Amino acid sequence: MSTKARQYEAQVLRREQLSAHFVRVVLGGAGLVGFESTGIPDEWVGLIVPGQFQSRYYTVRSWDGSELVLDIVVHDVGLVTEWARTDVVGQTVTITEPKGSFALPDSAGWLLLVGDLTGLPAMARIHEEITASGGPPVRMWVEAPDVVEGYLPADAEVQWSTPPGDDASVLAAIVEGIEWPEGEGYFWMAGESSQMRAIRKHLMREVKLPSTAYDVMGYWRGGAVRQPRAVDPGPIYRAGKAAGKTDQQIWADYDAAQQRAAQEHTGAAGDEGAQQ
Ligand SMILES: Cc1cc2nc3c(=O)[nH]c(=O)nc-3n(C[C@H](O)[C@H](O)[C@H](O)COP(=O)(O)OP(=O)(O)OC[C@H]3O[C@@H](n4cnc5c(N)ncnc54)[C@H](O)[C@@H]3O)c2cc1C
Prior knowledge:
25% of the residues lie in helices and 26% in strands. The chain folds into two domains: 10-96, Translation factors (Elongation Factor Tu (Ef-tu), domain 3); 111-246 and 260-266, Nucleotide-binding domain of ferredoxin-NADP reductase (FNR) module (Rossmann fold), CATH 3.40.50.80. Strand 11, helix 4 (193-207) and strand 12 (214-220) form a beta-alpha-beta unit. By secondary structure, it is α/β, with parallel strands linked by helices. Helix 5 packs across helix 6. The protein has six helices and twelve strands. The longest helix has 20 residues, at 247-266.
């Protein structure tokens, strides 16, 4: 869980408006020499924009050895959001080395991908790479404020839906409505964190997927559920590893600890699954 990652300085070569809420930023330049993809199709980098110290994570939509493409959701307010709204071409940003998490078992006969607009770049890349390598059939559900025309191939099996608000999501309800295919497969999902917590419970308790058959990641936190204090993941990770838990189980322990911290702070009671 080291936070020390190699960093690269990159120039913004181009900026392109993909849709009302989605901006493509293409990075390049000599600073990217030595940057190497992990080959994992949901890989992400930390992005630090000029004048900032904090990073935000973005999926590597593509890397061809000289140009690195990031597709950025522009929401209401935010450090990278506000930067990406402006004419950023020519500016220098810092990115960290990539990491990935997607782990499709060889035995998977189906692949389901679910996400909001922040998850769409990873979904598109996963779809592209799995289809090209002759992997299992892919079905997708995307919750986005606007359909991003041409972003996914015309023959992709995808259902688009609109979120109930800018800072809101009903992805958990969408997943609860899925009719699960027969046999072994793999489920990948990313979006607002409270929705992801509800989904992990649903997958474990109702669908009874083994932890190796899914990867569910919180990509951002809605304001209403922002945590009042950070929970140090280190002790939870070490305790989980010592107990022989999988990464998914450790993530679930970490989510539960964060929620306890939030409830202690607000005095709120109730089930974390009831957040829609
Ligand atoms: C592994 C990983 C990969 C990711 N890949 C991508 C990607 O490819 N493209 C992408 O756009 N994002 C991606 N994200 C999500 C992105 O890191 C967050 O949305 C991030 O918080 C945006 O930073 P910001 O500076 O714009 O807003 P922040 O300064 O972090 O937040 C400001 C406010 O905006 C709210 N907010 C944050 N994100 C959203 C959102 N998406 N919608 C509505 N409100 C929001 C917050 O609750 C907060 O109140 C990824 C996250 C992870 C963990």
